Input
Amino acid sequence: MTKKKSSASSLRVRQLQAKGADIKWVRMALDDAKNLENDAQKARLAQLAKLSGDQIDLSDSPELTDEFFRNAIKNPFYRPNKSQLTVRLDSDVVHWLRGKGRGYQTRMNAVLRSAMLRDLMSVAKPTRLKKRA
Output
């Protein structure tokens, strides 16, 4: 009979218990967690859901100016979804991509993303937010 290898989490629990830590386990179904909202929160959310966009007070929200967007940074945690597909490329293009070393698929994605963004920027027209009276 082989001894079952303990997981890292149970090892950590045993280490904490050895130091005298009181470990309490809480298990809750997702549906139970959703029910933790109290009645006041539910009433407030229902009240907000009934409001139209004109009725929402935005006076404490800062205006988004062009300077705000110039100083904006890309979200460092953003990771776009990847799609697997088969694509037929010219041999010289594949040779060029692979000739630069490892990561040719990442490079291909970067080239395509750059072209996509350039195309989107040429089509998109900047819109300005209307000021509230």
Summary: Residues 104-123 form the longest helix (20 residues). Residues 100 and 107 are 9 Å apart (CA to CA).
